Amino acid sequence: MTQYAMKFPEGFILGAAASAWQTEGWSGKKDSQDSYIDAWYKNDRKVWHNGYGPAVATDFYNRYVEDIDLMQVVGLTHYRSSINWSRFMLDYEQGIVDEEYAGYVDKVIDTMLAKGIEPMFCLEHYELPAYLLEHYGGWSSPKVVDMFVHYAEEVFKRYAHKVKYWFSFNEPIVVQTRVYLDAIRYPYEQDTNKWMVWNHAKNLATAKIVKAYREHGYDGKIGVVLNPEVTYPRSSAVHDKRAAEIYDLFYNRVFLDPAIKGEYPAELLTLLRGNGIDFAPTEEDLAIIKHNTVDFIGANLYYPHRVKAPEAEWPTHVPFHPKKYFSGFDLPGREMNFSRGWEIDPAIVYDMAMRIKNEYGNIEWILSENGMGIENEAEFKDEEGQIQDDYRIDFISRHLFHLLRAIEDGANCRGYMLWAFTDNVSPMNAFKNRYGLVEIDLEDNRNRRVKKSGQWYKTLSETRCLDIDLDDEYR
Ligand code: BGP
């Protein structure tokens, strides 16, 4: 065993994340203000674990004062959530702001700042207004991109003097991948072309709001939160390595490259065209993307992704899917979080950091989500009723170890944000897997209770030092 005592760099962010829809609940929301997620829940409740979903969530809308006190208790320096686009507007067509919701956002920001916690916001975390999906086909319409830019400008006008960290989207690839590529989420429509049209519209929307933010000369940073999957080939053989490269093009570089380098990888465009996918970007769109790259990115990192060469020929009667080029691969002997079905390999953090350093100009970034969702967590309560989540402390420590090691090796990472601050609602899994530093007790009026990890995080944040014991062969 070796004991490490690793200091955090000056100003290093130790925060936690969540989103509007996963916490706020529908209190005060008008019927016309459903988001895509709300519509999914209303139309398809049976797929949501035990029937829980966004309707009440953690009731943050009513309990934010109590929760912001708890942010201080667990030592957060920063907290990232989203502003709920679907609620921020009363009328999407006319671009009229809902002053009631906007006032609530203002109070949340002021309460956080008064407690010394810096807010960060995404402008969209799956909260596309359902109205825009129904009437315009969502991101398939350039008009929706323009409405998003208008919404962003209204947000900046109100809060950019107080909030210094902005992100266009959280994980912009996710909704269309689950809905249009894999067809496993409401409204279950397979359409690979639409998948790419949405990817492009979101890349364009990011560039347009970066442009708007800069034109107004706001004093802060603007970027996007991505979920790049650190992807390893099964073997060093050419065919396996090729599978990993192609996976990376379709799922990672499709957002990383436009956001940071201002252009799509040429090889991705060739593969799309060769498979009949035409998302028809205009020269003007490409020029906007080219000239408005982000200041920084957030990378959500949870698990490694492993692939091998495809097991079979892609069937001709099935529409094109990137799976034509790869098959998944389970590493024998892998460490697992069985509740979520995700492999655990903390070294992904180091590998991603080195990739950003070497391939993306060492752009500034934060590890914007990382965490461990555990089922039946109440079983870990001690006699006083506090959840003893030593597994979470171990998970965070090992990921931070690799992050601090990467920073020693020159990575430009400025912070770590845990998913999540409190337990909250996951898409479909709802409250099944608990992620929080703070428990939400569904049996008892959603009462909050700090877990052991919450106390530990507070100490980490105060001492600014990670103490960890690792097997000598761990590295
Ligand atoms: C990320 C999302 C979060 C959160 C997290 C945990 O991909 O940005 O919103 O949900 O994953 O995953 P899950 O909730 O599916 O367990």
Automatic annotation (TrEMBL):
SUPFAM superfamilies for this protein: (Trans)glycosidases (SSF51445)
Gene3D superfamilies: Glycosidases (3.20.20.80)
Keyword Electron transport: no
GO cellular component: cytosol
Keyword Hydrolase in record: yes
Top-level taxon in the UniProt lineage: Bacteria
UniProt-listed GO biological process terms: carbohydrate catabolic process
UniProt GO molecular function: 6-phospho-beta-glucosidase activity
Keywords attached to this entry: Glycosidase, Hydrolase
EC assignment: 3.2.1.86
Record-stated family: Belongs to the glycosyl hydrolase 1 family.
PANTHER family according to UniProt: 6-PHOSPHO-BETA-GLUCOSIDASE GMUD, GLYCOSYL HYDROLASE
Protein name stated in the entry: 6-phospho-beta-glucosidase GmuD
Origin species: Vibrio thalassae
Lineage: Bacteria, Pseudomonadati, Pseudomonadota, Gammaproteobacteria, Vibrionales
Recorded name of the encoding gene: gmuD_2
